[in-house]
Every structure is written in C-alpha cells, then in structure tokens.
Here is the input.
Amino acid sequence: MILLGDSHVRSFASSENIQCFYMAPGYLWNLKDRISLFRVILLLIFFKLKNKSVNKIWLSFGEPDVRHYINKFGLEYYGYHKLANKYSVRLRRCIIISRLINLNVEGVIGSTSPIFENNSICDLFHEFAENEVRRLN
Here is the structure.
C-alpha cells in the first residue's frame, strides 16, 4: 500500500505493508478550498512523474481540513454536514483527476484531532471520504 499525505503519514512509517510519502505540510496538503485542491493535484502530478510505475494510492487527509473549518465556522453541528459535503466534492474532484494521470485512489485515511471536541467532525469527514471512494470505485 502506498500512502500519500501530510505529517500524519509518518505514524505509518514503521509498517512493513505501507510505503509512506510525505507530500507537504498540512497547511498545504488539504482540501479546504479550490486553491488547496489545485495544489494537491499538482503535487499528485509531480508524484506520478517521479513514480511512473505506481498506479494505486491511498490518501491521508483530515485534521488540517477539520481544524480550518472549525476555526472558520465554529462548532455548529448542522454546519458540519454542509462543510463535510464541500470536502467530499473536492475529494471527488481529486479522485477523478488522479485517474486521468493513472493514479487510482483506493482509499482515504482520515486523521483525528488532538482536541476531543473536534473528533466528531473528523469522523464525519472520514465517513464522507469513505463514501466518495466507494462510490467512485
């Protein structure tokens, strides 16, 4: 398994079955807005150019996305679904564009937050991400 992501991928580095690639810091590797999505796609293109034989990947997103949304919009539960939906739309675009460069996203690993109150939205974002991957594969 090949896992691409921010610093959270380092927690998987000792696994024999997972090859981790640190792509960028969390403030650059996220799906919080269109510019961030564009940046992630560029990083995926650069990854593919350097790793031509790789065609199946997993992505790690989560905590920076969640922290951004919570800081910007607060902790209102009904806002979570709207925010998670925006996140899943960007993730869907990322997966579709990845296929155009022959990178098939097999799954997304979400991160949790060190702030206990934020874990419910982390779980929701992860659920939306799993649904997108399942729907597109």
